[in-house]
């Protein structure tokens, strides 16, 4: 089984080549330098950059030297223009090679990235598990009963946690992307000396981070802020955001007894989040699984992992379109 995978949902163009369970290639072109001057992702610029780079990455993948079994791509969720680029590229290659075209859910990819270890897909999930997907566009809790058996427990009502990190970084005058810089600044502080309210939606498993971002802006308003203050604000913000994620995840673990939780998405690279979740879940005798940091952001390796599981189960169909607002769903 050899899978060619393509990812271009937002601002990374990526091509992966999977042979059996072994990842042979995972090429990524990042658009950070393009979007940094705008302090955020510009959809039109993103789709143009994907168009410019995708053929080059396909060539470098060496897929024409392989006997490809299937082509896969992230069909959503994502930016409309960016999704169209990977769909057109993958459908063209699929038609040329006369192999199946498998469209997968980008968020499922973030979950399954937890099973990529040392460039190999491993069977490490002990179902059922709780999954927390935390990225620039999503904050979601799932109950996962098996591959392709997903139930959405709750999502964010407004800003995703990664978006809140980036917007807070912008308020503090940090460059884009701001999430890693918030973590770096917070690490300089042992005790901020103050705290922000932990944003907790009263019932269920939903999240809300817009109020926390507003609290930061109020803290900054009318005050003379020096670098030391920025570090303290970053630390207080990070602590509050992670606590909100932890509270809801603990509630899910309490309602649905599991032995594992999996945390995926760009924000799962945050060292403070990893430390807090690992320590708190250990008290509950729950193992926490994170992707290797190189697979936390958007990448085609996770797309290949999704296609691998579908091919292995024999549950796939040729995809005919990308979907910007695709929701997590059970396999058909």
How would the blueprint of this fold be written?
Elements: E1 2-7, E2 12-19, E3 22-30, H1 32-36, H2 43-61, E4 70-76, H3 80-97, E5 101-105, H4 106-112, E6 116-117, E7 120-121, E8 129-134, E9 139-146, E10 149-155, H5 161-171, H6 179-186, H7 210-220, H8 227-255, E11 260-264, H9 271-283, E12 287-289, H10 300-313
Parallel strand pairs: 1-4, 4-5, 8-11, 11-12
Antiparallel strand pairs: 1-2, 2-3, 6-7, 8-9, 9-10
Helix pairs in contact: 2-3, 4-10, 5-7, 5-8, 6-8, 7-8, 8-9
Note down, in words, how this protein is organized.
With 332 residues, the protein is of the alpha/beta class. The protein has 2 domains: 2-121 and 298-313, ATPase, nucleotide binding domain (Nucleotidyltransferase, domain 5); 129-294, Nucleotidyltransferase, domain 5 (2-Layer Sandwich), CATH 3.30.420.40. 41% of the residues lie in helices and 20% in strands. It is built from 10 helices and 12 strands. The strands form 3 sheets. Strands 3-2-1-4-5 form a 5-stranded mixed sheet, with helices on both faces. Strands 10-9-8-11-12 form a 5-stranded mixed sheet, sandwiched between helices. Strand 2 (12-19) and strand 3 (22-30) form a beta hairpin. The two termini are 21 Å apart. The relative contact order is 0.18. The model has no long low-confidence stretch (mean pLDDT 95).
- Strand percentage lies at 15-25%
Helical stretch tally: 10
Structural class: alpha/beta
- Span of the ends, CA to CA: 21 Å
Number of strands: 12
CATH topology of the largest domain: Nucleotidyltransferase, domain 5
Low-confidence stretches: none
CATH architectural category of the largest domain: 2-Layer Sandwich
Strand order of the largest sheet: 3-2-1-4-5
Q: Order of helices and strands, N to C?
A: EEEHHEHEHEEEEEHHHHEHEH
At the first level of CATH, the class of the largest domain is Alpha Beta
Mean of all residue-level pLDDT scores? 95
Q: What is the global morphology? A: globular
Main beta sheet, described? 5 strands, mixed
Task: Give the CATH H-level superfamily of the largest domain.
Answer: ATPase, nucleotide binding domain
Query: What's the number of structural domains?
Result: 2
User: Helix content range of the residues, please?
Assistant: 40-55%
Q: What does the radius of gyration come to?
A: 20 Å
